[in-house]
Amino acid sequence: MSRLGAWCLEDFELHKQLYKGKASLLYKATCRVSGLPVALKLYRKLRLSALNWYQVQREIRIHSQLQHENIVQLYAAFEDCDHVYLALQYADGGDLYEELKRHGGHLSEERVARDIIQPCLFALAYLHQKGFLWRDCKPENILLGGPDFGSVKLADFGLSIDSTEERPVTRAGTLDYMAPEVVMCPEKSYPQENKEKALLGYTSSVDAWAIGILGYELIVGHPPFERETRTDTYEQIMYRRPNYPAWISEESRMFISAALTKSARKRPTVADLLDHPWILKHCPRTLVPAADSQSGIASMPSVDAASHIEVEDPAEKACRPPIFNIMVDCNVASGDAGSSETHHPAPEMAAESSPEKGLQSIFQWANSSVQRLSSRLLASATVLQDHVLSAAHSSGDAIEDRPLAQSMAVETTAGRPRSASSEGGSLSTLFYPPLPEDHQIRDATGSAQTPVQSAALLASEKLRKIRAAGMDAESAEACSTPTAIKAHRGSQIDFREGCSAESGAAPRAAMDVLHGYNSPWNSPARRRPHGDSSGSLASTPPPRGPIRFPSHKEGRLSYNRTAAL
Ligand SMILES: Nc1ncnc2c1ncn2[C@@H]1O[C@H](COP(=O)(O)OP(=O)(O)OP(=O)(O)O)[C@@H](O)[C@H]1O
Asked: Which residue stretches does the UniProt record annotate as biased composition, category Polar residues (predicted)?
């Protein structure tokens, strides 16, 4: 059976809450139509400012165009009166941050290069080729496909931007992962702010920088420029070089140094980084797509299609879940000629013609954008192609025959309100099923706020500073440009004695002791950054002119999405 109409909440059976953000909730759910497990992301409309609305719309527009082995698939997007829903491919291995925690904050270099960095680079090359910037690289947004760690997937495109449609001019992302040129940009409070400023702007190379940060964090245990205050972190990002522990290999040091080239113009692209000797050393050569093969990048760049089919186990292929392929038409911002709604000119245009009308036009424009988005999203979820058909056939389930009441049969739980009405498009369609005790997700903010943990966090920061001072401050300069990487590629890698796993380096733990290195992950104080919620945009005014650094440390909260949430 195919899903003929638009998707709605009743198509999903909610299980446990996976995450609670400022404006979003994430549930593990099962699609009643196909039986597929999904991650259902709910944005609470009441918490969304005009800017947030714009970003949600952009997230859906961009994510719905992505189909890649290393990117979480967006299956559907729809809305009711109170929520916007994203049905996402469920990653049962959790996120990379949790994986790091499970491994004491370190992963082996080989694993980092082969299982994480290379797949991320493939996904980013694919994104960049389409003109998209991800802008939100961090372990929390990289999901694992299973216990074998075989297939990481990028998630969360809430900050992504289509550079073919708009110029990136905003300080967006997670501070520890921001490139210098991003840090130099101002924040913003409405979609078109600063777009007219020709001197502002950055490119996809901000994602290459973030990959360098990611590599460092996964290998060393913390981001290279993380400091106690935001001011210090900004300064580190802008002017300092990372400190490298002596035990990390020369190649990984060179890779990270190359990605962390301060000048965006001299920084290697993600395609260049795929050719870095560190990647080539740890990843089978056949997995690397030709650098200039556009089709290779656009489809599944991580595997050569032909050889992949040859080695693929047919049984495994049969078990692969079907994809219900839904395209969401949310091309709202560009306007709708046929719409009867009042359209307001973009604020900067109005401001140009009459400065005093500028502010008024911003509000009018924001209002009309919200209205247009809302009405269009409600009407626009369109099913194009549906593999659910086969899934439903095989299960013998007939979705049309299924009474709505039955599909909605969810027990009411004490403390979890559920409305009796199920009229389409109302909050009444939203329900929160009971959670088993052992599945109750504790609020990340609440779970780490005890005084003991706060004190431990401070102690851990001090420890980290002491460690940083003792690290090898030398920064590898070789391979710091695309040209240098290419020159280096294929050449015999000269291992620094004692630095490479292959040269019989001492086990990591022993080296840590030797160098007085005590992973922050050994301390229970390391908190999940999602829990740090003090850094909302609302509390950090956008800088004007020269950068002014705020004096307090905010957590690793993604910027520019939390404004007014
Ligand atoms: N498809 C998925 N499958 C399994 N878990 C997921 C999935 N998507 C997200 N998660 C989990 O939920 C967390 C938050 O997801 P996501 O980053 O999309 O939410 P968010 O509201 O955008 O968060 P933030 O604003 O903090 O970036 C992730 O770190 C991950 O642990």
From this structure: 419-429
Tell which residue, 178, 125, 134, 183, has the closest CA to residue 156. Answer: 134
Active-site residues, by number, are 136
Which H/E stretch holds residue 318? helix 314-319
Query: Would the ipTM clear 0.95, i.e. be above it?
Result: yes
Closest CA to 199 of 186, 189, 208, 187: 186
Measured from the CB, is residue 21 less than 6 Å from ligand 1? yes
Q: If you write DSSP's letter for every residue of 208-221 in order, what string do you get?
A: HHHHHHHHHHHHHS
Tens digit of pLDDT at every position of the chain (565 positions):
246 678 999 999 999 999 998 889 999 999 999 999 999 999 999 999 999 999 999 999 999 999 999 999 999 999 999 999 999 999 998 999 999 999 998 899 999 999 999 999 999 999 999 999 999 999 999 999 765 445 799 999 999 999 999 999 999 999 999 999 999 998 877 787 777 777 789 999 999 999 999 999 999 999 999 999 999 999 999 999 999 999 999 999 999 999 999 999 999 999 999 999 999 999 875 554 433 333 222 222 222 222 222 333 444 433 333 333 344 333 323 333 333 333 333 433 333 333 344 344 444 444 444 444 443 443 333 333 333 434 444 444 333 333 333 333 323 233 323 222 222 222 122 222 222 233 333 344 444 333 334 444 444 454 444 444 444 434 444 444 555 554 544 443 333 333 333 333 344 444 444 444 444 454 433 343 433 322 222 223 323 233 332 333 344 656 555 443 4
Q: Please tell me the distance from the alpha carbon of residue 405 to that of residue 413, in angstroms, as a whole number.
A: 18
Which atom belonging to ligand 1 lies closest to the Cα atom of 88? 1
- Residue having the nearest C-alpha atom to atom 27 of ligand 1: 558
Nearest atom in ligand 1 to 158's CA: 22
Of 519, 504, 453, 463, nearest in space to 103 by CA: 519
